[in-house]
Amino acid sequence: MLKPAAWILWPSFLAACVGEMLFFALFDPDELVLFWRVIPLSRIAIYSIGFFFFWFFAALSSGMTWLLARSAAEVNR
């Protein structure tokens, strides 16, 4: 069970790192607006929340790929 978790979490971690770098290279955390209001959090908090947001969606994508790539024998086991 640990192998599939590593197959899902490690690539999604790397994708989240790249996504975080690209996103925050273009957008300043102090200027981000949510529902027409500036987000009242520190830069570090916004970076952290952004990273976990990217990691969650990358892990969701990797997990779906892992589920869909399984053979019929593995599914019916």
SSE topology:
Layout lengths: L1 H25 L6 E2 L2 E2 L4 H27 L2 H4 L2
Antiparallel strand pairs: 1-2
Helix pairs in contact: 1-2
Architecture overview:
The longest helix is centred in the last third of the chain and has 27 residues, at 43-69. The protein has helices at residues 2-26, 43-69, 72-75, and strands at 33-34, 37-38. It is built from 3 helices and 2 strands. The chain has 77 residues and is mainly alpha-helical. The two termini are 14 Å apart. A two-stranded antiparallel ribbon has the order 1-2. The protein has one domain (2-75).
What descriptive keywords fit this protein?
single chain, 77 residues, elongated, 73% helix, mainly alpha, two-stranded antiparallel sheet
How many domain modules?
1
**Quaternary form:** single chain
Radius of gyration: 17 Å
Order of helices and strands: HEEHH
Structural class: mainly alpha
- Count every beta strand, where a strand is a DSSP E run of 2 or more residues: 2
What percentage of amino acids are in beta strands?
5-15%
Average pLDDT score: 89
Helix content: over 70%
The N- and C-terminal alpha carbons lie at a distance of 14 Å
* Shape type: elongated
Largest sheet: 2 strands, antiparallel
Q: Give the neighbour order of strands across the main sheet.
A: 1-2
Number of helices: 3
Task: Characterize this entry briefly.
With 77 residues, the protein is mostly helical. It has one domain.
